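tool=predict chain=A
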Amino acid sequence: MGSGKKKVFYSGGWHANEWLTSKLLSYFMYLLAEKKSRNETWYDYNIKHILEDVTLLVVPIVNPDGIELVQQGIYKDHPFYKKVLDINKGMKSFDHWSSNIRGVDLNHQWPAGWEKEAEESPKVPWSRYYSGEKPLSEPEAKAIYHFTNKHQFDYVLAFHSQGQVIYWGYNDFEPEVSEDMVKRLSYVSSYVPVKTADSDGGYKDWFIQHFRRPGFTIEVGVGVNPLSPRHFAEVWSNNCLLALEGLSL
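tool=predict ok
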């Protein structure tokens, strides 16, 4: 959406049991489109002018098969039925599942300290944290990798849950402007800016390291994943302005 020279990327649904981030981004885009079509301002943000300056690209569901598994479970004719039950030790409840359908954590897949993260994580497909056999082994990670290289974004926001924090640095590769940008995001959301999560292999980590441009991981909400739909009001109230401010950085 938009036609501006500055390209911004929002992504969500990286982890299967963090699907509320997908709802957040889908609803944001729906309302953004409505405001644009009506030429309306939105909380004092002039949408028409913003979208003349910015092109916003959004992937609300990076991990569709994993999210489907958490929301709907598994069925016998599913192509990964046996593999999923083997990983889950025969259990058919998947609220704890954050990986993709192949048991790989899509936010451990990135060539930015991947070896270190893989060494400290499960060594076989798992419901969470398994980094895969190598970086970018998974089709979802490859798709985002090629999408990012194609568009050369000016900065990226990756939405996860939960914790109400914003991670904004990686091994001091981030540009100086990142700190001022995260302060603005923090001010409109009340989320706490944290420079590093002391982890590696994440999309934001790779983006910062590879492009030396700003990248942010937004941890929405507070509680236990998957957050209940009743948490959406809190998630929306804290992140609607954050998403709007993210277009104005």
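Residues 34 and 64 are 26 Å apart (CA to CA). Strands lie at 6-11, 41-42, 45-46, 54-59, 155-161, 165-167, 192-194, 215-220.
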